[in-house]
Amino acid sequence: MAKKVRVGLIYGGKSGEHEVSLQTALAVMKAFNYDQYDIIPFYITKQGKWHAGAPLTAPPEEVKQLQYEASAAGGDLVPVLQSLQPGGGAAEGKALDVIFPLLHGTYGEDGTIQGLLEMADVPYVGAGVLASAVGMDKAMMKKVFAHEGLPQCIYRHFNRTQWTKDPAFFIMEIEVSLGYPCFVKPANLGSSVGISKAKNREELTAAIELALRYDRKVIVEEFVDAREIEVSVLGNDEPRASVPGEVITSSDFYDYDAKYVDGTSRMQIPADIPADIAETVREMALRAYLAIDGSGLSRVDFFLRRSDNQLLINEVNTMPGFTPFSMYPLMWKETGMPYSELLDTLISLAIARHQEKQRLTYS
């Protein structure tokens, strides 16, 4: 009988997307084959405390079962980190084979947890430190896209200190360069948290103040009358792209409520677009993925401008929503890869990337 792969799932986190992470973790736990994998849960509270659960013998039924309040780790990071390391004795004295971070937003997909796992020298699913950090910071991401020659909408960005010193300058620059309406976003956040559509100066000021509650940097983008097209990317150095999908939102834009609350936005997979545009969007998605040095998985989002069918890249999401009903796995399902096979592939990619790193010389 083949040895089971011991997978540590890390979820929750000190993030505005804590609840989204819990939903992802529940879905993944239910999808794993427990004859093939041993699943060890690691829950991070909103206050940043770590709690290690006992190995799962069956998937939990509801989210509240995932929110551990006490554990052998006692909420401290050091014992947990020791248990993550090879030979460190995760649950029942057995080492973990791979970590699957199911963390969205800050401290989850921004390179911080990835750096911790690199220091622990343990294989982990998803993007590395660099790709995670660039993929999280929309301002840096757009600079990488520009260097790669990928078309994108007009934008401006600034930090809290710059805004506080001279708000009138940035308002003027936005009005001249972008006009109204425009979109205001925290530079480092996902799931559309803190994003606003501003139609005038008063709304712009309020939107910037809101965005600064979630991050020290703000990005402002021009309004583009466009369809929202997305592509799933999978792989390490030789990634592949899924069929494109389209988000048809119930809201003025694809905000948090449209994604997670009102339930009336819908997805069309594959997207109803011409074959040549579908091929172009897949090619551009792979270029963007490789440009940020992606690995494991990412969802790449585009605008398809209605006036001229021009594709504009929006962002790369290095830890996309991952329930069976999320765009990322649904696009792979339509491409021919079911959810369980997708999990197997991601585990294999993580282990392969870690083995590749072991070839490096450090002395």
Walk me through what this model shows.
- The structure is a single chain.
- The chain is of the alpha+beta class and 363 residues long.
- 37% of the residues lie in helices and 21% in strands.
- The protein has helices at 18-31, 77-84, 90-93, 112-120, 129-136, 138-148, 160-165, 167-177, 201-214, 256-261, 275-291, 327-335, 339-357, and strands spanning 5-12, 37-44, 50-52, 98-101, 155-159, 182-186, 196-198, 217-222, 226-235, 240-241, 245-248, 266-268, 296-305, 311-317.
- The strands form three sheets. Strands 9, 10, 11, 12, 13 and 14 form a six-stranded antiparallel beta sheet that branches. A four-stranded mixed beta sheet has the order 3-2-1-4, with helices on both faces. It has a four-stranded antiparallel beta sheet with strand order 5-8-6-7.
- A hairpin with a 5-residue loop joins strand 2 (37-44) and strand 3 (50-52).
- The longest helix is centred in the last third of the chain and has 19 residues, at 339-357.
- The relative contact order is 0.13.
- Residues 258-262 have low confidence and may be disordered.
